[in-house]
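Internal QA ticket QA-208
Title: Verify multi-chain structure generation after dependency bump
Assignee: T.L.

Test input:
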Amino acid sequence: MSLTKHGHDKVWQIIRAVVIIASLVLFLFPIYWMLVTAFKTRAQIFALPPTWIFMPTFANFKQVFLNSLFPRYALNTLIAASLSTVLALSLGLPAAYALSRSKRGDKLLLGVLVVRMIPSVALSVPLFMIFSRLRLVGTYAALPLLYLSFSLPFVIWIMKAFIEEIPPEIEESALLDGCSRVNVLFKIVLPVIIPGLIVSAIFCFIWAWNDFILALIFTRAQTKTAVVDLSTYLTDQGIWWGQVSAAAAFIMLPPIIATLFFRRYLVRGLTFGAVK
Amino acid sequence: MLPALAALSGIALYPLLYMLVVSFHTWGLVPGLMPRRFVGGSQYLWLVKSPDFWHWLRITFIFLGGALLFELSIGLGLALLLSPEKRWIETARILFLLPTTTAPVVIGLMWSYMLNRDMGIVNYFLGLINIAPVSWLSHPSTALLSVILVDVWQWTPFVMLILLAGLKSQPIEPLEAAIVDGATKWQTLKYVTLPLLMPIISVVIIFRALDTFKTIGLVYVMTGGGPGDATTIYGFAIYKKAFENMTMGVASALSVIMILIVIGLVFIYSKTLQRRTRA
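Actual output:
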């Protein structure tokens, strides 16, 4: 009796494994295809039937990284993403702390949440007019400030939840022992909420890195980001798919690294707000 | 605390008020080309009466409905499939997340290449089973379908992740009771697991609905809203009206309406969350 049940279970396990692997292959195929295209020559890209096995070439990467302005744009993206992350964290952490210890915290949090949910397009319309008048369009400062509209609420939201895990008694005893509020924040609260900081930092960075619409509207030739530059390849005379793939492969790198090496933080951040 | 509030007010509240004001005007971005005139509520009236407005809403609705249909069903299937706690399954879960973390522009280009009529791999595979090549992005109906397909591809892993977290946090007693009562796997799924999952599913629907208003990058790169305006979802329409037609007044009015919808959705979301913590 138990033997057949065991055999029965084994069959289901194998079926499950097969279905999972098949779905995985299907899902990841486009990414694989894009990466592979980056290493093909023009002829191989246009070939029908498609070339599956071939000798890889680095010509596309050379073209994109040595012969064009792309590295400049990649640097711009790095600057924008890093600045915005630092800004969001430094403004958000004290705010989260204050909110979690105050009585009106939850009402304010709802307001903060609404801001986070507002699509960037809506804000971009008036912000563009305001920024033009302030002569901020096309500067390096523009994007980090703009990204605050969704990264700051997110940081506050997440950090508040993390901070609330700390019982106030610990802080109160520290305050009684003569610690200043600032010291309490740094020496006691900070070490405990570092996972929350990492989650926030990863998401702020990736969103800023991947953002297109705000970057499109608010950057100019000097400060253009990599993602915006990529979109321009589409309108040129015949799309240089090899170079597009090479540039795209680079742009995909930080998110892929984050996904593979920071998986726990990623999962925590993505499911936050959906499941307590 | 104060700097954060100041920043948020600056970057969100003030612009929103500004936008509200602009929405009552006809407002050209470049003053010389188009006069700025106060028109009050007639701007909204004009919008509500114009067929374009309803067309954009309809397209957005079709997009959302189609995407959610697949994302929920495939997502649920994947969540159930990937629920065992084994090392390799956990790795599989992470690999599935790759589409979700990639930049929409990159995804748009990726798929534009794959859906290309002549050299795209999709038509190649279809050809293997004797289906004629399709100009995916040049026909109105297939264009919308393609955009939905790509959105499903990108976000189903996200839906799966949330559904999985929901499945994991379900209390074990109802399930055990069902098994004791002799329910089959299908019956357990239908009468115990799914009803318990309803709050999470509502959260997913709200999240995706909110995200639909942000799916501009994808549309921009894949179809530019076309052909014609077959794939012009609401958010993209705002972009076009503001930055291609330069009519800030119309764009502002559209945005105000959109924000009202967003606020409504966030309100429903927080009510759903309250109900969950009480249960």
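Spot checks passed. The two ends of chain B are 33 Å apart (CA to CA).
Status: verified.
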